[in-house]
C-alpha cells in the first residue's frame, strides 16, 4: 500500500530562553490513502508537534527540523517554500485544531472564516463561497446554517464551534485530515456526535484521517493503526488489535491498565508512577525507564531499538530483545 504521507526519522527542536529543546526525536510514521491512523500518549508527548510539523505550521523562527524527512505523495515538503506549502494546506491536507473554544478567530464571523479557504483554493466568488459555506455547515449537522454564517464564535456552543472547525477543514475536500483532540472539552453526547460525523464524512470522501488523542476509548473506536508516543518518541506501533490486546511496551500496558473496564466494575485502576521527563533533562537511555516497573541496568544507558512483534507491530523495549527471550541478561 503506497503511503500518502510518510514521516521518516523526523526530529524537531525549539529554540527557547532555556536553550534548545528537542520536542520530537526520530519519529517515523506513515498514512495510506483512506485509512485512519491514531497517535496516542500523555499530554506533552509530542503528538500535536508531529502533526503541525508535518504541515509545517510550527513557528519558523523557533522551530528547527533537525533531521529526517516528510514525504507527501513522494515529495519531501521540508525544503518547500511557504508559498508552495500554502497550495497544499487546505487543498491536500487540513487540520481540525485542538480546543474549539480558542481555535476560531473571535473577531471574524463564522462565514468569513469558512469562505477564506474556498476563495483561496477553490477560486469561488463571494456569493458562491457563501452558498458553499452554508452547505458545509449543513453537512456537518449544524442547525440554521445560513444564520450561523453571520454569527461570531462566542455566540456558539462548544459542539457547534467544533462542527464549524470540521466544516472549515473539509471545505476544500482534503486528502488527509489531522484531527487534533477533536473532542476535547466536549460532553459525552457531543463527543459521540462528532466522532460519528468524522466517520461519515470520511466514508463519503475517502480521505485519510490522523486522529490525535490521549483518550484511548476514542482511538479504539476510530483507528485501524495506532502509534503510541512517549516523551517525543514512538515507543510502539501496531494495529488496534495489537495495541489493545497484545501490548508489548510497558508504557502501553500502563496506559491500558488505567482504563475502567465495564465488565469488571470492581477492577482497581492503576496509574503509571512518576511523571514524564523534562525534555531539557532527558534520561540517557530509555526515556521511560524512570517510571518502568521492569527497568534493567541497560535501560539507564542505551536507547532500545524497535523490535518486531508481528506483522506491522513493533515496540522499543529491551525486554523484547532476543537475548532476553533466550534467558540472557540485557
Helix/strand order, N-terminal first: EEEHEEHEHHHHEHEHEEHHEEH
The outline comes out as: globular
Strand segment tally: 12
Radius of gyration: 21 Å
By secondary-structure content and strand pairing, the structural class works out as alpha/beta
Which runs of at least 5 residues are low in confidence (pLDDT < 50)? none
Determine the strand fraction and express it as a percent band: 15-25%
Overall residue-averaged pLDDT value: 90
Q: What's the arrangement of strands in the largest beta sheet? A: 6-7-8-3-9-10-12-11
Largest sheet: 8 strands, mixed
Beginning-to-end CA distance, first to last residue: 36 Å
Briefly, what is this?
The chain has helices at 47-54, 82-88, 110-121, 126-139, 145-148, 158-170, 188-205, 216-222, 240-245, 250-257, 322-325, and strands at residues 3-16, 19-32, 36-40, 63-72, 75-76, 93-96, 176-180, 208-213, 225-230, 233-239, 306-310, 313-316. By secondary structure, it is an alpha/beta fold. It has a domain at 253-330.
Amino acid at each position: 500500500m503506497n503511503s500518502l504521507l510518510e514521516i521518516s526519522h523526523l526530529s524537531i527542536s525549539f529554540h527557547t530562553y532555556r536553550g534548545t529543546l528537542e520536542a520530537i526525536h526520530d519519529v517515523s510514521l506513515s498514512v495510506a490513502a483512506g485509512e485512519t491512523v491514531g497517535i496516542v500518549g500523555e499530554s506533552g508527548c509530542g503528538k500535536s508537534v508531529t502533526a503541525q510539523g508535518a504541515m509545517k505550521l510550527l513557528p519558523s523562527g523557533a522551530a528547527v527540523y533537525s533531521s529526517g524527512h516528510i514525504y507527501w505523495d513522494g515529495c519531501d515538503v521540508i525544503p518547500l517554500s511557504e508559498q508552495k506549502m500554502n497550495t497544499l494546506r487546505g487543498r491536500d491536507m487540513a487540520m481540525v485544531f485542538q480546543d474549539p473554544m480558542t481555535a476560531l478567530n473571535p473577531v471574524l464571523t463564522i462565514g468569513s472564516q469558512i469562505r477564506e479557504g474556498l476563495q483561496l483554493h477553490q477560486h469561488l466568488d463571494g456569493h458562491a463561497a457563501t452558498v458553499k459555506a452554508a452547505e458545509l455547515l449543513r453537512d456537518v449537522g449544524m442547525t440554521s446554517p445560513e444564520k450561523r454564517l453571520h454569527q461570531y464564535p462566542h455566540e456558539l456552543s462548544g459542539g457547534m464551534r467544533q462542527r464549524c472547525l470540521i466544516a472549515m477543514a473539509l471545505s476544500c475536500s482534503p486528502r488527509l485530515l489531522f484531527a487534533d483532540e477533536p473532542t476535547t472539552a466536549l460532553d459525552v453526547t457531543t463527543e459521540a456526535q462528532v466522532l460519528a460525523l468524522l466517520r461519515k464524512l470520511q466514508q463519503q470522501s475517502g480521505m485519510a484521517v490522523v486522529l490525535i488523542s490521549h483518550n484511548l476509548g476514542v482511538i479504539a473506536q476510530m483507528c485501524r493503526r495506532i502509534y503510541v508516543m512517549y516523551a517525543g518518541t514512538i515507543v510502539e506501533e501496531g494495529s488496534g488489535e495489537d495495541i489493545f490486546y497484545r501490548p508489548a511496551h510497558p508504557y502501553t500496558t500502563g496506559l491500558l491498565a488505567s482504563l475502567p473496564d465495564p465488565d469488571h466494575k470492581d477492577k482497581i485502576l492503576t496509574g503509571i508512577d512518576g511523571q514524564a521527563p523534562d525534555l531539557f533533562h532527558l534520561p540517557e537511555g530509555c526515556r521511560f525507564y524512570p517510571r518502568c516497573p521492569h527497568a534493567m541496568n541497560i535501560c539507564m544507558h542505551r536507547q532500545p531499538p524497535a523490535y518486531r512483534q508481528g506483522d506491522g507491530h513493533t515496540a522499543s523495549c529491551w525486554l523484547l530483545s532476543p537475548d532476553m527471550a533466550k534467558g540472557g541478561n540485557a
